[in-house]
């Protein structure tokens, strides 16, 4: 008989990103993979910046993702997959891509990515990420 055990999960939190606006974690680390919840254009204190220009909203949203990734010892540029929700992809995708390239920097293997149209309730953008994470063995005093 095969016994199935749940994979241990660890909530990841960062003061460099806004607290959750509902019942969810900023991110969860499970089985060597970091799953970052949808981030929006909010300051770390939770204030929304939805009246800012799109480029500012995009940069703030990606900064939130990087803040959470950093708390797990990684970065957005190391993501395997990024999902981008835009209110109007036809007019925003090119501008988002310019900000995104600036934030992740030069890389031979940019993350796989999807851009999805969404009727977002607050702001013009929301982004999620899935990032593989290496766990380091702790040295127990040799």
Automatic annotation (TrEMBL):
It holds the Pfam family Ribonuc_L-PSP. GO terms for cellular component: cytosol. It comes from the Bacteria. CDD domains: YjgF_YER057c_UK114_family. InterPro entries: RutC-like_sf, YjgF/YER057c/UK114. One of its GO terms (molecular function) is deaminase activity. Belongs to the RutC family. This is Enamine deaminase RidA (YjgF/YER057c/UK114 family). It comes from Saccharopolyspora spinosa.
């Amino acid at each position: 008989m095969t016994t199935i055990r749940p994979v241990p999960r660890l909530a990841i939190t960062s003061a460099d990103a806004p607290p959750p606006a509902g019942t969810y974690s900023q991110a969860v680390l499970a089985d060597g993979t970091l799953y970052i919840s949808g981030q929006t254009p909010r300051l770390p204190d939770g204030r929304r910046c939805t009246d800012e220009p799109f480029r500012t909203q995009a940069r703030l949203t990606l900064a939130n993702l990087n803040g959470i990734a950093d708390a797990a010892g990684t970065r957005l540029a190391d993501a395997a997959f990024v999902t981008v929700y835009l209110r109007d992809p036809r007019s925003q995708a090119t501008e988002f891509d310019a900000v995104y390239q600036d934030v992740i920097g030069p890389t031979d293997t940019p993350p796989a990515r999807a851009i999805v149209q969404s009727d977002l309730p607050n702001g013009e953008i929301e982004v999620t990420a899935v990032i593989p994470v290496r766990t380091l063995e702790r040295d127990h005093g040799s």
